[in-house]
Protein: Class I SAM-dependent methyltransferase
Amino acid sequence: MAEAYSNFAAVYDALMDNIPYDAWADYLHGLLVEYDIASGILAELGCGTGNITERMADFGYDMIGIDNSPAMLDIANEKREQNHSSSLYLCQDMREFELYGTVAAIVSLCDSVNYITEPEELTHVFSLVNNYLDPDGLFIFDFHTEHYYRDVVAEATIAEDRDDISFIWDNYYDEEEAINELALSLFVKEPSDSDADDNLFRKYEELHVQKGYTLKQMKQMVADSGLTLLAAYDAFTHEPADEECERIYIIAKETRNKNSKKQYIQ
Structure:
């Protein structure tokens, strides 16, 4: 996980300009409000460049963005300054994230949890979430399913050529392990001081590894972590999810257990 998005960070937003972040944030906000969380402190795991974080700050939440990529967080902090928000960005691995106290809700979007490829580690992440939520606090996350990796993008190659940026995504799917490896080749135009250098591009390469989970597996990990499952929706709808969905939203709530809750340090 540590190397993912290291070179991609500088051009991530340019290449992801097809993602309707406003609609995604509206959907997330609607889910939170349905469960009476219209304000308070929210933490986002895998916040990336802060696209969702800053939009949730605009809804009035006190945001904490957590990501393990310093390069992505540098861009997120630039957005925070431009947005004049009070968002706090922390460079942490979600597998061992720490907060100063409990929060009203924790969210994780853009299939960030799929980067946790060991079920035991993902269950531990969910346990940490349970520990850092206020009583009856909410956890909302999305994930790409095994069906998506196996039947939609497996062995697919996606390429796009733009004036300043080009990329090639090569997907390799291991059906036995339900692991999708995405080999990313980036070609980024270099700044130039002369016409002679106008067509100079630099190549960057990264490998992204994600695991496809079934809905059944995800429900079991939520239960094993101590959280209580409230709903599983086909993404961006309120339709019940099933194993044929490509992206699923899970809504779970904090459940008290023998572990003591963290208290805020005043």
Summary: Residues 8-144+213-253 form a domain with the Rossmann fold fold (CATH 3.40.50.150). The longest helix spans residues 21-34.
